[in-house]
Amino acid sequence: MDQNKSTIERLFQKYINNECSPVEIEILLQYFSNAENEYFLKSLLEKESLTNHELTEDVNHSSLLNETFDKIKSKIADSKKQQPAIMIPLYKKGWFRTAAAVVLLFLIGATILHTLHSQKEKAIAGIEKVQPFKDIQPGKNSAVLTLSNGTQILLDSADNGTLAQQGNMKVLKLNGRISYTTNSANQNEKPVYNTITTTRGNEYQLILADGTKAWLNAASSIHFPAAFTGNERRVEITGEVYFEVAHDRSKPFRVEFSNGTGRKGEIEVLGTHFDVNAYPDEDAIKTTLLEGSVKIRQYNKIQMLAPGQESIISADAMTLKKDVDVSQVTAWKDGYFLFNNTDIQTIMRQVARWYDVKVQFEGKIPVDGFTGKISRDVPLSKFLKVLQLNDLKVRTEGRKVTVIF
Prior knowledge:
By secondary structure, the protein is of the alpha+beta class. It has helices at 3-16, 22-32, 38-50, 61-82, 113-125, 326-329, 344-355, 380-388, and strands at 88-92, 140-141, 144-146, 152-154, 161-166, 169-174, 177-182, 193-198, 202-207, 213-216, 220-225, 233-244, 253-258, 264-269, 273-278, 285-291, 294-298, 301-305, 310-313, 318-321, 336-342, 358-362, 370-375, 393-397, 400-404.
């Protein structure tokens, strides 16, 4: 047997023995979803059924094996379709409970059905009984556009097409995002400024006049000119915004940021991809670079970033962090939560902003982190169930969530 099959057989047995981690189950799912590996799956099932003492002599072994195999393949197919909902469950760093927290990907045949039922009952028993509540849906693609004269447009209900005329620029909505396009050759008009704001539970994307793309996370804003004039391109943001800046060596792109608590700074760039997190409830303002180079300025301090680095502006210092997991930083833009040994308070701040809920804690907050990947499209109840399956109790009352330790 080759090394790869030997590893899969070991993981298969670990799953049956309730010893598999979520990541190992993901490996099994991916392996057996390949049609070329179906024969190996059948052989493992047959081997397991022959060693299972619950089978009686009058059972038609071949029929049972084929039926079990068909159920497993069907379950794998269903799991792949549902994968964006909860891709890899959260687990507690160092001692996470496995089988109870994992969606049952396969192994639902008669030979091991009893084992799976007992695992499910154990998971349900560990969940605190809560009163039924109206589920809270995830955030959506929505924002408010404030024009230069103070007029406000709710973007999710606005029709596609031209929304307004701002100076010599048309404001267009198409496919759930805003863009600015010139309406004349005159570039010397006095600049007019617009603001796009997202509330808690909303996000939005826009394309600025120079082609720069900006994604706004929940509870964020961007203030910008409808058309860039002069020798620079300058915008102001709050909250969290991800940028893909159009290259223009003659006009540096500058981002002013402030978290509302007195900490602020400026980013200068010619063309690059980066994320700025300046929420007032976070401990620091973070700028994370994915591509290109940027210069961070705070008063008389200057810091240069290379890809994979992060600038951190705290109350008393400006520091540099190297080898940052940029996929975790920008996961929100790509439609999911991604945690890597992340503390529960940081997790719940993201939950509060995305689901527009108030979060509080009872008991001693653990120092252990959580790791996992969850779609931002799931309702709040599904997210909370993942926490409950990791030995955390959760109580919900309207839009208030209490995490109990």
